[in-house]
Amino acid sequence: MTHTEHVDVLIVGAGISGIGAAYYLQQEHPGRNFAILEARGATGGTWDLFRYPGIRSDSDLHTFGYEFKPWRDEHAIATADKILAYLRETVTENGIDRNIRFHHKVLGAAWSSADAGWVVDVERTDERGEDVELVQISANWLFCAGGYYRYDQGYAPSFEGQERFTGQIVHPQHWPEDLDYTGKKVVVIGSGATAVTLIPSMAPTAGHVTMLQRSPSYVLPVPAKDSFANAAKRLLGDRRGYALTRRKNIIKQRAVYTLCQKYPTAARRLIRKVNASQLPQGYAVDEHFAPQYNPWDQRLCAVPDGDLFKVISNGSASVVTDRIATFTERGILLESGRELDADIIVTATGLNVQLFGGMTLTVDGQPVNLPEAVAYKGIMLSGVPNFAFAFGYTNSSWTLKVGLLCEHFCRLLKYMDDNGFDSVRPVFDDPGIATLPLLDFAAGYVQRAADQMPRQGTSGPWVMSMNYTYDADMLRNGPVVDPALRFGSRRAARNSAQTPQLVV
Question: Contact at 8 Å (CB) between 12 and 37?
């Protein structure tokens, strides 16, 4: 294993979070050097990885985009190619690309208090994923920006009899480039954001597309274009129009979430009314679009201009709510006895949660057990020095939280510089504070991994907030210092050790 370089900050992941972290770091701390390690061969993260038909955002780009870079396209709900172009333009405009190391997968990181730094083990490969070389990079800080799911493997439950099926089974996370579904019968298993994106995209070309769901999800039509945003841009210019639209949409997102949480019955009725207005007369709305849980206990699925409802209405797609008994040679046999014929089955069954890219962490030789750690301000972990991570909102646009976290991170670095500190760690030592799962979210992918993730506290900086207004006040405007933080300095420690002690 060879040691290749030292950086002040090592950012892991060149997706939307890592690019944002790099921008804020070089704006606020131009004297610090940094590198971005990306396991894959391209920037963009999710938006470069997924290649299934119709992939798009489920948040408006005026809040999903960066605060510092206006979204100029007329579509507020945008396809992956537009989002990817936006991200790569951000990289190029700000010279971030010179700091990216592709095909660098982080395996583990070891913190040394004596050195006040990390030594990071990295697997480096060529463009084909071959010629593996193990290298080490040292860093004062680690900033994990790799998202929350496993990139190399989606969640694919085992279905009874699936080996009997003579057609093709595809997972959206591993979509074949040459998949031809023209005129074919397609069954999409799932009813989440991926399924409601795939179906209207495939329906015009396929023979017929069926969405097979065990239970319904909340689906809400939204305008693909934001008329307010486009008018504001024309009248005020890109930057001011974007800023105004961003503020408007932040308030709107919070209002919708609050309505759903405080008045779930009213919200349920409103969503049902909207759905019924988009579907054919007499359609079984309550069977296929009335979940048992309350709105926003799981994420609402947004469909731009009601495209899912349009393909259901014109007959090119349909919804079946039932349970799978077994796969057959020709398709899927349901518990009701009905059989769905299929040439292609798409398992839109979700993702596997994996924090920090699956890397291992040790502090002074002791392994960090993530389920025993508690998140501090949603950006650090108890007991782990000089370690930050980016985790966005589950009830709003991901990037809104990431931007605030990056700002706070830069403020923390400045405080440490001004006061001569080179290390800081949160300490969770209040026995009066109970802990909860990191995410209060009922989605299956979260529940499957709850016992593998860090915890959150019930008060103070240990709460994993999902409220932009609260976070803006705490992370952007609140103090950096906190009783839970322990700052340290190698210089002070050395001076203390060298100073003769007065014995009395």
Answer: yes
pLDDT for position 499: 43
Mode of pairing for the β-strands spanning 375-376 and 380-381 = antiparallel
Q: What whole-number distance in Å separates Cα of residue 252 and Cα of residue 272?
A: 20
The CATH architecture assigned to 2-151+352-493 reads: 3-Layer(bba) Sandwich (3.50)
Q: In which region does residue 378 sit, left (phi positive, over 0), alpha (psi from -120 to 50) or beta (all else)?
A: left
Q: How many residues does the chain have?
A: 504
E strand spans, 354-484: 360-363, 366-367, 375-376, 380-381, 387-389, 423-426, 435-437, 455-457
Which amino acid belongs to residue 67?
E
Domain 2-151+352-493 and domain 156-349, same fold? Reply is yes
CA-to-CA distance for 361 and 416, rounded, in angstroms? 23
**DSSP codes joined into one string, 106-123:** EEEEEEETTTTEEEEEEE
What backbone torsions phi and psi does residue 171 show, to the nearest 5 degrees? -105, 135
Delimit the domains of the chain by residue range. 2-151+352-493, 156-349
Cross-strand bridge partners of residue 213: 321
Q: Can you read off the two tokens belonging to residue 162?
A: 């699936």
Tell me how far apart the terminal alpha carbons of the chain are, to the nearest angstrom: 51
Q: Is the dihedral of CA 49, 54, 59, 65 positive or negative?
A: positive
Q: How, if at all, do strands 339-341 and 117-124 pair?
A: unpaired
Assess contact for 148 and 45: CB atoms under 8 A: no
For residue 497, the model assigns a pLDDT of 46
Q: Are 117 and 138 in contact (CB under 8 A)?
A: yes
Residue 369: per-residue pLDDT: 96
- The pTM score is 0.93
C-alpha span between 367 and 361 (Å, rounded): 6
pLDDT of res. 252: 95
Pairing between β-strand 208-213 and β-strand 317-321 as defined by DSSP bridges: parallel
Output helix, strand, coil percentages for the chain, rounded to the nearest 5. Answer: 35, 25, 40
Angle at 66 between CA 65 and CA 68, to 5 degrees: 140
Quick check: 15 and 146 in contact, CB under 8 A? yes
Point out the residues of the chain with pLDDT beneath 70.
1, 442, 491-504
Q: Which residues contact 303 (CB under 8 A, 6 or more apart)?
A: 196, 200, 219, 220, 221, 222, 309
Class in CATH terms, 156-349: alpha beta
DSSP letter (8 states) at residue 133 = E
Looking at residue 494, its pLDDT comes to 53
Spatial separation of the C-alpha atoms in residues 415 and 480, rounded to whole Å = 7
Q: Please give the Cα distance from 45 to 277 (Å, whole number).
A: 37
